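tl;dr need the bound structure. longer version: we got a ligand (fe (iii) ion) that a collaborator sent over and nobodys looked at where it sits. i said id run it. heres the input, straight from their email, havent touched it
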Amino acid sequence: MTVQFIRGEVISFKDDPFLCGSESAIVHEEDGLICIEDGKIKAFGSYSEIKGMIPADASITHYKDSIICPGFIDGHVHYPQIQMIGAFGEHLLDWLNKYTFPTESNFADKSYADDVAKRFLKKLIGAGTTTAAVYCTVHPQSVDAFFEESSRWNTRMVAGKVLMDRNAPEWLLDTAQSAYDDSKRLAGKWHHAGRQLYCVTPRFAPSCSDEQLELAGQLLKEQTDQPLFMQTHLDENVDEIAWVKQLFPGSKNYLDVYDKAGLVGPRSIFGHGVHCDEDEFHVLHEKGAGICHCPTSNNFLGSGLFKAFVAKDEKRPVRVGLGTDLGAGTSFSQLSTLNEAYKVSELNNTKLDAVHAFYLATRGGAELLYLEDTIGSIAPGMEADITVLDCGHDEFTQWRMGYANDLNERLFILMCLGNERNVKSTYVYGRCVYDRDRAEPFQYPQ
Ligand code: GUN
Ligand code: FE
């Protein structure tokens, strides 16, 4: 049994600020103490109140000029696409054909996939992100490469093989049956293997036949004891939506294509949702499905402005998390992603304050994944995935922070000026696997 203590200024969330207001959603300890035992948070409170539980011989890691928060959760990201971040000049459908499909072809080679998975997880952990919902490629070996590396870090990851049996180059296609068989085998191998979780991953409606979508739905239905996750893209781009209408004339709207196949329910994660209509929001709410907001990607591909406050309408609130959507997105950092989310919100004439923002990147993501009882908050019983954001490392940010009047302003400055360079340390299941200032910053947990 290992017990350790972390002391410093801590923020976390106990509720959804979109629904109950920012004040009552946030938990803030100016001088907090977190006690971790065997990977989980055993106690959390103000230092002065709970310091009595520290044994005489215990070591305390004290972070000064820092904000300690739950590990960030990236609700939508494509690890194979990190090699093509910043691919110039196209909107979604041409971007897929010109850049994405050729890039993803490389993942037929397992050793190539191993290399990219290693790079990806280091970048993610270095950005303070401890959980992500990850698209692999059509190749089953791309899934093994990812989960093998995630297992080394002991990160809690949700990932799956991309299903695509049409409208892409022939060498990148599976079939409805092979997709079902491969997904079932991979789920059997990886779902709840340690902290890993399997996600059935139809790429998006235009790349999946009716039969493929139906078999994906069947796979979800078959697995009842430990339900699988499901992720896909929804209402990202107007040309894509017009194409879906053409391909599926019998469906009421884009979401209905997935709903007819049994793909809309709890643990269904829909990327983007930029152009969702009221009907779709209703169905998402009723079925307990969620949307991942991907602002850097939506801006980069010119896809449009996701209306987070409409999605969160109190009459039928939808679960919403935050995603980088690399390689259409442009940063590994959830701080940079929030910077962009704020600007999108302004263009929608709504006010995304720092509490809304940090909630989206932490507990909001956990709710999107139905893991809010496991990760995404600093509270007793939760898995100890923790990020330490340092305001002192960067002299300019520290100076600017000196002019902030309260916590809200400091968090807001951090998301406007900050990025992965402001991540001092990342803890995964209680282990400090990244420390920016260590001789070897990245270390697999022992
Ligand atoms: N729609 C289908 N595939 C993709 C993808 O790889 N990235 C994005 N942003 N949208 C998609
Ligand atoms: Fe995506």
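gonna send this back to them w/ a short note. The mean pLDDT is 97.
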